Amino acid sequence: MDAEKITSLLKRQNLTPPELLTVAITGQCNLHCAHCWVEAGPTSTAAQVSTQKLQRLIEDFAALDGAALRLTGGEPLLHPDWLELLAAGDAAGLKLLLQTNGMLFEDNNLRALQALELKDLSIQISLDGATAASHDRVRGAGAYEQTLLGIKRLSAAGFGQTLELFFTEMRHNLHELPELLLQAERLGIGSVSSGCLVACGRAGAAEGIAPPEPEQYLELLQRHADDQQFQRCYAKLGTIAALEWCADESAGQGCAFIKNPYLTAEGTLYPCLLCHADEYSVAEVFSKGWAAALIEGVPLWSKLQKVSRQRISAIESCQECALLKSCAAGCMGRAWGSFGDFMQAEDRCRQRQAVLLWREKF
To answer: Going by C-beta distance under 8 Å and a sequence separation of 6 or more, which residues neighbour residue 142?
Structure first.
């Protein structure tokens, strides 16, 4: 089935055709992070996906009007052909995103990356603090120093403006976000974004790892309101959910399945990067092929889309909340990850309430 027919099939079911595909090319990782959603690590049983299968997937995704490809893991640099896969995505005309811990960039692969002369590449590096104490608390001793070294090597090789730091907001590190923005500016990094910890995967059982309290977000908002340097640096580099909530008064209308799907190293396709419900997944995608997987998934995702749009009126705990129209019950993927239930308000409910009530004072 060609691109036009598959797009038509998706749209008839009120589904958004895939634009950004995130693919875990390996389950292996050189770290064993305490907050890892997919529980990757040195002993992961998720094998590296064959290069041939990945190349076929990339070609098929592009042929069906895909726009962007994110390579992730595990740690994607542990796949022996990660450079070849980036080159395949570039040849297919895709915007490329590489999601990495940044620790494995050596001179040889940096020179090889430069030689590819990729047309549209972003490199997202996880940095969970402005200090070694905060970052290493979840990623292990020495990780901060090695990540900074990788960032400096990338910047020296001309990739500074392609870099995006991603910061996982946690109770022990949220106060470091302003300093992280300043640090990124000094390093010549292109952007900084953040997202609140989801208490699933390893984070669901880790001791001492938790999402920030609402009061911490209010302190961050007040810091932004009072600190002109923070304001300037944020305007230049930042995307932080709590600050964006203050700026955006529009409510969502349900999730945009299957605009940003996620494909595991085992070949399981989920309709959203954050919505990992097996009941609504398609298995063995590398064997079935991209087009066949989309066709198989349409009835599942159509049903899930309807569930998503019911949340705003069906979640009992939300109905008395004066802020319901501002958050629309939040992200159902986060609700599923945290509670295993689509008909729960998302896990950031108290934090969002605090931020939105703070906004109404100004």
So the answer is: 136
Question: In angstroms, what CA-CA distances link 268 with 193, 194, 288, 304?
Answer: 27, 26, 11, 17
Q: Which residues are paired to 163 by β-bridges? A: 123
| pLDDT tier at 208, thresholds 50, 70, 90 | confident
pLDDT of residue 254: 65
Residue recorded with tokens 């589904």:
15
Instruction: Kindly state the average pLDDT of the residues 137-155.
Output: 97
* Widest pairwise Cα distance in the chain: 59
Three-state SS for 280?
A: helix
| CA atoms of 55 and 274, how far apart (whole Å) | 24
Query: 168: which strand partners?
Result: 195
Beta strands at 95-100 and 121-126: parallel, antiparallel or unpaired:
parallel
Model confidence pLDDT, tens digit, residues 5-42:
998 999 999 999 999 999 999 999 999 999 999 989 88
Q: How far apart are the C-alpha atoms of 73 and 79, rounded to whole Å? A: 9
Packing angle of the helix pair 214-226, 177-187 (nearest 10 deg): 50
Q: What are phi and psi of 253, to 5 degrees?
A: -120, 40
What is the rounded average pLDDT for all residues in the chain? 93
Nearest to 332 by CA among 302, 315, 311: 311
Output the CA–CA distances (angstroms, integers) from residue 30 to 102, 105, 139, 217, 341, in the order listed.
11, 13, 10, 32, 32
Phi, psi torsion values for 322, nearest 5 degrees: -70, -15
